[in-house]
Queue: 4 jobs
Job 1
Amino acid sequence: MCNIYKALESEIDFSKQENLDDIKAFKHQYYEFAKHSVLNTRILEWPKGYQGDNETLEYLYKGYPVSDNLLGKYIDLYAISRTLGVGIRERKEKLKELLVKEFFSADNISFKNILNIGCGSSKELYEIGVQLNKLNGKITCVDFDQDALNFSEITLSSRMIDMKKFDFKRLNVLKLVDPQFMLSNLGKFDIIYSVGLFDYIQDKGLIKIFKTLYANLNDGGKIIASFKDCNHYSNFDYHWLGNWDGFYQRTKAEAIQLLQKSIPGAEIEISKSTIEAINYYIIKKYKNSEY
């Protein structure tokens, strides 16, 4: 199966405008073929109106084919085995590791307000599970998709987690360009984290959002954010074979530069998973920070 896709990739130079007719014909044929796959149909058609919805990510998190026919299973297998398909699962595992450290280490026993931005299915919290009952704090999950918020609440409650620790709010993250809006509607936090979402926001808006997040971070608090590194994956699968092209192509150096523009002088720690295509960036707000 992978050899077939490699052959297709080398057949057409997708970067050349003169190949536009060939590209359109190729895509049409591929779409008819790929619709045998439950996962790829979602990637192609965006049934919830946007790319990377929580249900699509849930299929990728599973790590095995979900279609009920043999051809669909092979197409699923290709999608989940690609660099970012694996990277999405590794990103979740790394996030769990980071959150458990922040939530439960001996140095982090005080009450903490936590903000999960673009929560989707909150899979990382679901998998931490009943251990969250030991958390001395409150978790606010925000997303613009009410279905995702409902899914998070239902699945988390199924894990026998104390739901009094949670607050679910529908919110467009782009409104977080305004620090006062965030303070009035959400408050201040000790840990703010988001995975994947920031890849879909252009630099100008994202710089304002990070300024707002940092302004509403308590002293000693941390922002945990993931970014893809386009030097370590091919966008062929997502921009051409699929219809998942909404994320910006940033390098690790560009992500660091963006954060430095947002929060001048900030100390940025980079935490890697086993897949170099996705990195975590951790920013701590020190006491009496001037910024």
Note: Residues 1-9 have pLDDT under 50 and may be disordered.
Job 2
Amino acid sequence: MGIQKKVILSLGSNQGNRLENIEMCIQLIHNQIGLVLRVSKLYETPSWGFESDAFYNCAILIHSSFSAEKILRKITSIEKEMGRTRKKSVGYEARMIDVDIVAMEDQILTTEHLTIPHPHMQDRKFVLQPVLDLQMDWVHPIFKKSIRQLLQECQDNSDCKAVAELTAPTMNYNVNKINYIAIEGNIGAGKTTLATKISEDFNAKLVLERFADNPFLPKFYKDQNRYAFPLEMSFLADRYQQLADDLSQFDLFADFVVADYHIFKSLIFAKVTLQEDEFRLYKTLFDIIYKEMPKPDLYVYLYQNTDRLLKNIKKRGRSYEQEIPAEYLDKINQGYLDYIKTQLDLNVLVIDVSDNDFVKRQEDYIAILEQIQEKLDC
């Protein structure tokens, strides 16, 4: 998964229904490039650098894991989708929609087609004033000045009048109104990636399973019969300790908790890996622990078919996972599905992500968020 970055974009329109153009563009960016976290007020400003009708301008803050070059390509595609045709002649022109990358955290980039931060942002009030609305602590990586400082020093005296309030698409989601979401799935289903994205986008405390620290895991994949019981017992102890700590000590700076596992996965895996007498002992201990654990407000299970799981496992390259047989994954998946059928008091959402790539395709990620929202609305 690529690391998500905060990207500031500037939007402008002076042809057609300017408000509709801006709102449509914000939604397309949200669906295709990155989650729109914040939007500025909408401003009306005179055309800059040429004679034409007044512009509507705004700024938005997005989260995106795409590179700057890929974001630019997607912006160009959105502009074309909305009917903009770029002329080859040099100079400013009226346009239905115009989107510029203003900044991408502290990145400094100069290519044939792209310069970041935008080389003229400090000269344009219609860029600086909306960006100020985003209330970021961003500092220009070259000038070492805040947006407020740049605006105070800007020589552009043109009128920049607020005309409307705009709403960020993330306001349509109330995922942060619940306390605890658990995201589950088979090995390689993408649960950690999804949990991480949601935590970054919605200011959640992220709880990730500490599987990499378990010394029995590589041994288990080499000799399952010998190491199954110590592996499952160590996982159970660690999961209990981690969830008990993280769910009792709520982060004051987070809105909710999102975890990439639920304690019940311990029983699902144990049923597959342990001998019958070992499982009876294990379940006795598990039942005592399970009664004390808080249950998630929403339990999301990511289903992926076994072929896709094997490809994902191979791609991520953990040496001790490479020999996992398809039959083992099938048993784990069936264990999850059987568990879900019995949980009548748990708010469960099963999402089939077999044909989904919510890292490379923003629209797939949005589709998952919308399914979560629909479940919360029920």
Note: The chain is about 40% helix and 20% strand.
Job 3
Amino acid sequence: MYLRKKIITLLGACFCMIAVPFTSMASSDTIQEVKINIGLQQDGNDVEVGVTTDSNMYHVDDVDVIRGSDINWTDDDAHILKVRLKADDNNTFSEGTIKKHLSISGASGTLVSCQSNGWDLTAYIALDVFYKYDLDVRDLALSDLEWDEMNGIARWNAAGDADKYEVQLYRGSQSVTSVFKTEETSYDFSSFITKSGSYTYKVRAITDSSLKGSWKKSESWHVNLKDAEKISSGGSADTLSGPGDSRSGKWIKDDKGWKYRTDNTYMVSNWKYINGSWYYFNEAGYMVTGWVNWKNKWYYCGDDGAMDTNTTTPDGYRVGNDGAWTGA
């Protein structure tokens, strides 16, 4: 019997071979022992599970995937494989079968519970492959993908159980780079932003055991040719007018200064474009005023934190359209 079931984003089809070894039996129509063999076939994130039996005393009646909450298991959100066997003819499952003589081989998993009314036996199994999938869904999800539009750095929030990340750059619908791996929650794509166009990147979290989360795609960032040439050569974009925040943010003040929070995260050691102006936040997440040295260039942020552009700073220095000190 083959199961094909979609579990959120994972397409699962399950096969389990159920072989029945027999010891000496008190009665030929009593099933004393059942051994469940589960085999899996994996292709990327796709998993096939098939359930069969070579017994002539019972057959596989039904296979399903349920939630742990359906059987009051400790992990309510976990996926559980449910296998129901039905005895053939006059055969019955002995009481000892469900207490001591049901074992699992093949795919790695844990027998959560089983029950029988004599003619039917239902086993609930927590397969490791399902656990890994549950981990993928719950702890490898990514959020807050954004661009640093001054220098072409892609950033995202850390995923709970991720050991590293895979990331790839696109211009329009065409890939610009191959898939790169990084242990950081950012990647510097500046050297690849060489042409005008709309840039996006996709990223997913992975673990050392090769468990991979789902790809997530950033919003599009349009770069003109002049800015592309500056960014790819290690400079900063001249055009600082950005689309603003795609998510609502909030200024937070404490006795040390101002921070800016978006979706419970704070910008640190970087610039943030907020309501038409650029602001710099230090390693502690606080807004900086005065001069900022960024990539060997100096920028001036006023008393309100907004970066000055195309003007003379209060201490008499000239800054250009990109906010950088011109040397004058």
Note: Residues 148 and 272 are 8 Å apart (CA to CA).
Job 4
Amino acid sequence: MKRVLFTAGMALLFMAVSAQQAGSDYIVKTKSAKKTAAVQTSDASGQESEQEKAHDFISENFKFHSLCDWKADEMKFMVMPEKYDMVVKTFHDAATGKEVSSMSLKHKIMIYKGHSESSEGHAHINFLCQDNNKMYYYEIPNGTFEDYCYGKMGVPTLAYLGDVDIARRELMGKTLFTKATLYRIDTEYDGDGYQEVTVPLNEEVKVTAVGVGTRSFPVKIIVEDKDGKEYYQNVAISKTNSGMRDDEFIMDNTKFLFAGSFELQDAIMAVSQNYAQYLNKTVHTKYTTNMISKGDGRERTLKVPRMTAFTIEAIMPKANSTYVTLTLKETESRRIYFKDVTFENTDNVAGDIDGHREDYFGYLFAMGQGRARQTSQAARAAIRQGRVILAMSEDEVAMAMGEPDNVVSSSNGRYDWIYNRSGGKLLIVKFDASGKVIGTNVDRSKAKTTTTKKKTTTTKKKK
């Protein structure tokens, strides 16, 4: 009997060790990780548009799986708890019904086994733990499974391993180019500590490892530069169970999308050498021009003032066209803009007096820094979001909102900048006599009577 128990015990131990080794294969670290390093985390935040090639790579290889469409025995996840999960437990032991510590399940692999309803009427999402062969369930807080699955909440703590497996197959050993400036290095071999490092844009790197990242950004991609230095980014690719809405992947979170941090070699090579010479160069606008910008979760067309300086972050050729899309980072606020231009200097473009010549790069932009603009730290944050705050200067409002559609003088030297908005609304930014913002207002009553041209008789803008 003892021999039987011993044999059974050894078999279970072997299964547990084998499962643990299989799970640990997903945990990858940069060369910088130390066996005994202090935790160094950073909340520092560094937006780039997806290149068409990168978009095709994502859509062809990484399918988003809604919770409603998860297939039993086919969906595999790893438990990756965060601080919040230490307080609010995610799983119950199916055998006892008791809550289970998230830390006790950390790095364990869960296989989806479908959903069910308890005798009390609570909806359960069921999992088999590959590491210990035990069943667990996540109890949906409210409502039925059908009600819950149509949202993007998903199951907390679980990082989708399907994306990791595909990324390993498709990216290992591939050459990429960096599309962000902030990446991470590991500071702990046995922990989650990391340190942020600054990396040049469009740096050629090679993928050395792919593993699991976090629930929100499940794929950890480790790359190595030409000097042998390794760094990584955790990215969401299919966004399966990431728990984040699409509109949350903007601003500082853009780098946590694959196309926000990395560019495939084939895509970057699509930019001809004639264009590539302009990458990372500083240019400024010679004339007021319309550009697309994203701020506060919305995409807007803004009138960008002349003499505004940008760094050219990316150049994306447009299909069947002589035009390209420039990704431009405003040098002072670091806000991202997009502008379609052509580099071809032809009579039909540069000499067109009907409005197309401003699309010619050489007409619109000049090399070098434009007029210096001073901004405060608080204003820079608002500018990146496309908002106006009190005490902003004219320069700061123009950087946040673009040039006004109209300027109207008021009493005591005060004046208003008027912006036409959708739905017949007007955004009114009020300045005092010193040129500082004293308030804003949204007005619908004047929308039909106010002209979009600036009046020549209004107060001149303060310098």
Note: Residues 419 and 427 are 5 Å apart (CA to CA).
